[in-house]
Every structure is written in C-alpha cells, then in structure tokens.
Amino acid sequence: MKKLLLLAVLLISLVACQQSATELQQVTKALREKLRQKNAEALKIAVMPTLDCLPLYVAQELRLFDTLDVDVRLKPFTAQMDADTAIVGGSVEGIMSDLVRMERLKRKGLKLDYLSATNLQWQLISNKTARLKKLNQLGDKMVAMTRFSGTDYLTDESLKGVKTKSKVYKVQINDVHVRLHMLLNNEMDAMWLTEPQATTARLYHHQVMTESEKTGTRLGVLAFRTDSIKGQHRTAQLKAFNSAYNMAVDSINKHGVQHFSSLICSYCNTDQRTVNALPKLKFNHLSKPDTKDIEKAQRYVK
Q: What is the pLDDT of residue 209?
C-alpha cells in the first residue's frame, strides 16, 4: 500500500513538473515574441566610434530619447562596410555615414532618405617615420582608406593636380581602430582619420598633411531607409528623435565635448589624454545635406 501511495505521489509530481515546464516554455516564447516586436518597432541606427555620432551618444546617456518617449537603439560598428550591410539587410532603419557610401548604395537599388548632414570631417595623417609633409611625396606610398567611401573620394580629390614620382597606393583598411593602430605601429605611410582617432595620432606626433575641409565638401550624413520610416508610428518617432538630437547638440555646444569625456572614452574606445586634446568642435541641429555635396558624391560613384 505504501509503495502504491509513493508511486501515486511521484506520478502527480511528474505531471505537475511537466505542466510547469510547458507553461514556462509558453511564457518564454511569449516573452521572446514581445521582445522581437519591441525591437521591430524601435528606431535602430548604425553608429561608429567617431565624434560625428556624439549627439546620439549624448541623447542616449542623458535619456533624452526616453524623456520624449521614443525607443531609439544604437547599433555600434567599427567598420562602415558592416554598418552598410546592416542597413541593406534591414536590421537597422538609420545609419551615420557619408554621402559617397550612401549614393553608391542608392545606385545599387537601396532607397534612402537623408535626414541631416553631420559634422564628419577627416584629416590625412602621415606616419612620422615616413617624413611626409607634402602631398607630392606620396608616390609609392600606402594610404589607408575605405573603398567607395568619403575617404576614397578625398584621396582622389586631394591628389588632383598633384604630381608624384610614382603611383599612390590606396589600401583598404575598414576598421577605424585597426587603421589607427597600424599608424601607431608604423605599418602604414598615411591614412585618413576622423575624430577622436585623428587627435590620438597627432598626440603621437604624426603629421597632418591635409584635411577634408579644404575640399569644401561636407560628406557626413544621417540616412534612413525610405521603406522603414513610413507610417504614423515612424513619423512620430522621427519627430521625437529630431527634438532629442537637437537637445543633445545644444548640450554639447554649451558644455563642450570634454564635458562628456567619460562617455567619449566609452563609446569611442579612446583615452582621457585624447579627449583632453580634442579640438573645439561645434555641432549643428539636424538639417538636410547641401545639394551640391550630394551631386559631388553622385558624380564620384558613377
């Protein structure tokens, strides 16, 4: 009798456990679906560890997106080509990039809207051991850049009319951290860097040869997939996003970039010494890119 009673208890316990496991699976499945739906509804933006993205980092850290009730999720990349893959594949709605890259994607069939120009600028910095000061000394030298990008365009634009003794070799180094480390380790003759990586290079006494501002072209851009920003929900999101972005810009311009030093060190994987040496930077409210800059990019990618 005792054996029968024990067996009955065990059977009841087993059934209860099975029911609990089934219920747990159902709850887990429902939770996963809820998280998937939340992610799908969020405004996801591909970002780089560079200071053109600073307003987005500040808006997130100051919880400006939360204050304005908009779910913005920043997706970090260290190579722009990986960010391109994300927006082409639709895993993000927006991307911080440059006009050359975006115009090339548009030519390949991706429909994009430009929400704003950004303050993305580059410097062409030579390795101090190469002793390069003038552009005509770049013959037979390696310049690190990224193909089909703003740095590709800037290399060609900067060398227009410049006579070199031999060919300048454009070497594709996509990851911005790898590119900087190749300069610091004396593995590259020259390269295009933006902030804060350019400041790190200057701190190690590498020489600025030229900069993108001299071309008179503003290439930085915040772009969104056209098909992903349609409808009332997305329209409301973008309106709140615009406000949060502009509030972050005002905060940066008021306090200066060094005020956000810990944030910059974290998001850009840099150090305090670099942040302390950053030049004075001014950020602008969201505004459409200049038509002439778009046309320059279009002509380049044809």
A: 97
Q: Which helix (DSSP H) or strand (DSSP E) does residue 242 occupy?
A: helix 232-255
Residue at 120: amino acid letter: L
Query: 219: helix, coil or strand?
Result: coil
Number of helical H runs and strand E runs in the chain: 12, 10
Can you list the domains of the chain with their CATH numbers? 41-119+219-301 (3.40.190.10), 122-215 (3.40.190.10)
For residues 58 and 61, give the distance between their C-alpha atoms in angstroms, rounded to a whole number.
Answer: 5
**Which residues, other chains included, contact 11 with Cβ-Cβ below 8 Å and sequence gap of 6+?**
none
Contact predicate 47/75, CB 8 Å: yes
End-to-end CA distance of the chain: 89
The encoded tokens of residue 271 equal: 């150090």
Mean pLDDT by runs of 10 across the 302 residues of the chain is 56 60 70 78 97 98 97 98 97 98 98 98 97 96 96 96 95 97 97 98 97 95 95 95 98 97 98 97 97 98 93
Assigned token pair, 107: 């030519």
Helix (H, G, I), strand (E, B) or coil at 175: strand
Rounded to an integer, what distance in angstroms lies between the CA atom of residue 111 and that of residue 116?
16
Both tokens of 189, joined, read 């003759």
Q: Per the structure block, which two tokens stand in for 179? A: 């590119």
Q: What is the pLDDT of residue 194?
A: 98
- pLDDT at position 215 is 92
Cα–Cα distance for residue pair 192/180, rounded to 1 Å: 9
Measured between alpha carbons, how far is 88 from 70 in angstroms, rounded to an integer?
23
Is the distance from CB of 139 to CB of 168 less than 8 angstroms?
Answer: yes
Q: What is the spatial distance between Cα 102 and Cα 219, in angstroms, rounded to a whole number?
A: 10
- The residues near 179 (Cβ < 8 Å, ≥ 6 apart) are 144, 173, 188, 191, 193, 197
